[in-house]
Amino acid sequence: DAKVAAATLAAGESATWSTNEQRHVYLVAPTGSIRVNGIDAQARDGVAITGESSITVEAVTDCEVVLVDSR
Most buried residue, 2, 3, 25, 52, by most Cβ within 10 Å? Predict the structure, then answer.
């Protein structure tokens, strides 16, 4: 059971993904710099998240983001 989402964000924009704390979320920004729940990540950095019910991605620079939400 997995869900895949993608977004293109301009610098300063943000997007929030709601999930269940028991699910595992992996996201990457192929381009641009992002901040995920307050933690900075650069282009092509993989971000693995568990135990969160809400994930907010802020665009530090123009970016693309791909997110996978799975069990």
Answer: 25
Would you say the C-alpha torsion 18, 39, 25, 68 has a positive or negative sign?
positive
Provide the token pair at 28: 């990457």
Mean pLDDT for the stretch of residues 23-32: 97
Query: Helices marked H in the chain — which ranges?
Result: none
How open is the CA angle 26-13-46, to the nearest 5 degrees? 20
The pLDDT tens digits for 35-46 are: 999 999 999 999
Closest Cα to residue 19, out of 47, 52, 46? 52
* Torsion sign, CA atoms 8, 27, 34, 56: positive
20, 49, 4, 67: CA torsion to nearest 10: 140
